[in-house]
């Protein structure tokens, strides 16, 4: 596996070799053997904090290496590393709190019909988790990222299939996390990393892998999802696959702040050279003078965008061909043409662009359906609508998304008419996160966050960001009429671990 500089396309160094079936088996069996060592919640919290400290201690080297492999810039990657260590620390707090265990105790009650036996329920770790790293977040959604942090917090050892775009960064981060394990007295095999396409396939099929988390393309994710389901013993596959992230701009919002919306949209859709999974890729904007002002402000800001490299050559080619295909459709205009950056055979950059189309073209079957698919990179489609009926017709054709946004006028946002509530009701079935008068790029790591959505945004109803991401790697188990001495400490009446719980319908702790 070679580390490649996306700015030049040249190989930097050979980092490692692709893992074979024996290598994957060794990594998974090592992780499985480490499972009992993660049973103690205190040890897990200590591990997560040590992981954050190890990453911080190597910050300069990690950021420099990640930038050399991704071209995302030191400032962006420094922030991403801070987010990554913050996730680890947040999960350590969740582990110590213990609410994630979901302890419920219902004592026996013979007076009920039917009589209730003594029942006690909590959650336990699934086992070894396979994590498939993302290309566009070499830290926060990669080896030390949210999937890894949440799985370790849940008590599950992890085997990461590294992304080929950043093998050196992956090895560097893995070394930090494994050092943290040794430092805290845990087996270093609580986390392992494998490389290569075949390794990814072998990993999801391994009989000791109990669940998988994936961030990537629809095609790759769906293939792994199908493989997980086809196993003799199918496993949960939590995949984040693709998202258009629609935006609806009402006529009132455009009248009141067209320029502000246009500028905000430009900043969001070009952030990170358009390589965010929550990039707004389709915008429904009104026809008429206010919509024209919005489009003008958007176009002006996008023209000023400095061309930048994408994560690898394959993504660049897919972006360029995708834009060309979409721009060639009947009725599609390109007020700002996305395409190759500066002239020259060695140029690796792309420029940002805007495509426009009458919204009516998106309301029926035909080639314009291509505009309702994600195009990964710095481009967005602005569909100009004539009335609310066209907005409804377009929304009815959209697949599932991570986010959906509505830009409302002042009176609409204040609930002085039914427009705001109606649009929220229309957008809620389409996405896992609904925004009002904001932009979807920037996913806060918070307990209430939900980063997921209906298929193809994700393959499950879970989130990959925030405290509840741990739920993906746990399963509930109930004990019935079990003598107190035989119960796990978490379920005993005297609550020796001091856990928050619900007892006979009442919250405690």
From TrEMBL:
Pfam families per the UniProt record, alphabetical: Aldedh (PF00171)
Stretches that traverse the bilayer: none
Key words of the record: Oxidoreductase
Amino acid composition bias (Basic and acidic residues), ranges on this chain: 490-509
Keyword Oxidoreductase carried by entry: yes
PANTHER family, per database record: ALDEHYDE DEHYDROGENASE-RELATED, SUCCINATE-SEMIALDEHYDE DEHYDROGENASE, MITOCHONDRIAL
Record organism: Streptomyces albiaxialis
Region named Disordered: 1-20, 479-509
SUPFAM superfamilies named among the record's database cross-references: ALDH-like
All residue ranges annotated as the Aldehyde dehydrogenase domain in the record: 3-407
InterPro entries reported for this sequence: Ald_DH/histidinol_DH (IPR016161), Ald_DH_C (IPR016163), Ald_DH_N (IPR016162), Aldehyde_DH_dom (IPR015590), Aldehyde_DH_Superfamily (IPR050740), ALDH_KGSADH (IPR044151)
Coiled-coil zones: none
Protein name, UniProt field: Aldehyde dehydrogenase (NADP(+))
Classification via Gene3D superfamilies: Aldehyde Dehydrogenase, Chain A, domain 1, Aldehyde Dehydrogenase, Chain A, domain 2
